[in-house]
Structures are given as C-alpha cells and as structure tokens.
C-alpha cells in the first residue's frame, strides 16, 4: 500500500448525472415485452422480481423497434445520443467541483455499450473546452464494474501529477435490444438494463470523498458466467443464474481484506455503495456482509428508479448516498461493483 501525504490524496470533488427520459417498467412490460414474447409466465415472473419501477432509455422500444438493427446502425446512434448526455453529466460534475474544464489534466471515458474512432473522449473534449494536451484514457468493454477501475485511473493521475482528473461513465444499454427468442437470460437482461451517464471530478486534497484504495479480484474459472458479445445485431449479454452464488464466495473475503489493510472491519464502515446488478446480488451482499436495510437503501433505491445502467450505476449510487445521507468527516465508505471476468471490484473511500 502506498502512503501519501494527506494534503495530496485524491478525493472526489464533484459528481454529475444525466439520464434520458424515464419509462414505467410495468407499462413497458404490458405494451412491449409481453406481446413480443407471448404469454410467458417465466418472463413475467422474472420482470416482476427485477425490483425495477422505472428505467431511462435513449430508445423507447414502444415507438422504435431497433431489435434487428445492424451493429453499425446502433454505433452511429450511440455517438448521436452519447454526446449530449456526456456533456450534461460532465457539466454538472465540473460545476459542483468548481473546476474549470480547461484545468482538467486527465480525462477517462468508460463505456461498454458503444464504440467510435475517434472515440467520444475525442469528440467531447473540444466541445467541453478541455485542453488539446489533456491525457485521455478509454476503458471499453469491461462492463458493470468498470467505474472503479476508471476511478483508479483518475486517482492515480492526481496522485502522480497533481491537478484534476475527469471520469465519465456512459452506457446506452437500450441500443442493444435483441430479437425475442424465449431465452430466460434475455428476459432478465431486458428487465434490468438501462441508460445513464455519470461523471466524477477528482482533485488532490480538500473536502470530499478521499480515494484510499481500489482493489480487484477476478475468478478466472467463472469467466463465462457473464458475457457481453458483439453480434451482427448489437451486443448480446449472457447472465448466468449462478452469478449471485459465485459472487457470494468472494465478497466477504475481498471486503475484509480491503478493510484490514487500513485497520478497519466491516462494522466500522459508515456507508455502502453497492452496484445493484439485480435484487439477488444485493441480497447476497447484504447476507454476506451482514448489512441492514438502511445500509442497502441507496443501492436498492437506485435499482428501483434507474435499473442497472452498467458502469454508470455505481456513480448514481454514490451521488444518491452523498445527497440523501451525507457521510460525516472521517466516515469510511465502501463501494462494490461486479462485472464480466467474473470480477469483483472494491473501493475504500473516506469522507474529508
């Protein structure tokens, strides 16, 4: 573990969010999903247990059927939709942090739902007023846990060079609607995933959530349990029902190890920001970490109101936590996210 001078430690100085229009989950099932899948009791059960009340989508499938669009058409739409959402989220984060766009030294973009070359990092930078010399990093196709590696890149930049770093997590899952095929895994995917952009500004020192450590563990033997495959008709996810059980075997030991390196135990953690990959995953985390309903509230509320927005989701959870239940100075906060690999990512943050 690297020891840093307290005045130079990276901290989250601002968070900004942007979402497309909201869609009621029950209405979406009744008017779009069920007619396509015919009366399917399993699909109805899976949608009801998703614990999602509303989602945000750049493509409303009730009025625009893109399920048979080519991947090329979806990528063109990705750029068109990503630009305004990214600008809104970044603008809000910069405003909250009081950092000028021209003072950003490092810009990291995370996304697994779209590709372009030049990427949206290049397309967004001049529109935001970033300097041509800004260091850019693009993290692609890492999936739901990728916000924390992205935060690590931003924090490491600030630690090594000072200045300010900007992170954008932008996911447009609705662009990857698949043709109906009766696969229960696809019913789960259609019931859970949503669109959002979340931006984070990281600076050295001052008030905010200090980034103490970010740690990762990957279960190589379970790499096929969660996949995100490029096909001719968009990207197709597989999500094994074994994922909660597989994560249950890792989450407590990973969190205990992270905390022990800083002289802490689970009972010392004041707040939890857990990626709501689905209700069963949240249940597993609550059970393994012995957390009560209050500790899980920010994650469950995010799932209910936004669904699973892939990498952007943990930014939504952190923003909700800071807004609704602000940590006191010195409070430890643990963030946990999960993704393909099968990967479990953890972060220890301290309110300063």
Description:
The protein is α+β, with helices and mostly antiparallel strands. Helix 2 packs parallel to helix 6 (184-192) and helix 3 runs parallel beside helix 4. The chain has 2 domains: 6-204, Peroxisomal Thiolase, Chain A, domain 1 (3-Layer(aba) Sandwich); 209-351, Thiolase/Chalcone synthase (Peroxisomal Thiolase, Chain A, domain 1), CATH 3.40.47.10. Strand 12 and strand 13 form a beta hairpin. The mean pLDDT is 94. The radius of gyration is 19 Å and the shape is globular. The chain has helices at 25-37, 41-48, 71-97, 120-128, 147-161, 184-192, 243-260, 279-289, 293-306, 313-324, and strands at residues 10-18, 22-24, 54-56, 104-111, 135-140, 164-172, 195-204, 209-218, 226-231, 234-239, 271-274, 332-339, 343-351.
Compact description:
The protein is an alpha+beta fold and 352 residues long. The protein folds into two domains: 6-204, Peroxisomal Thiolase, Chain A, domain 1, CATH 3.40.47; 209-351, 3-Layer(aba) Sandwich (Peroxisomal Thiolase, Chain A, domain 1).
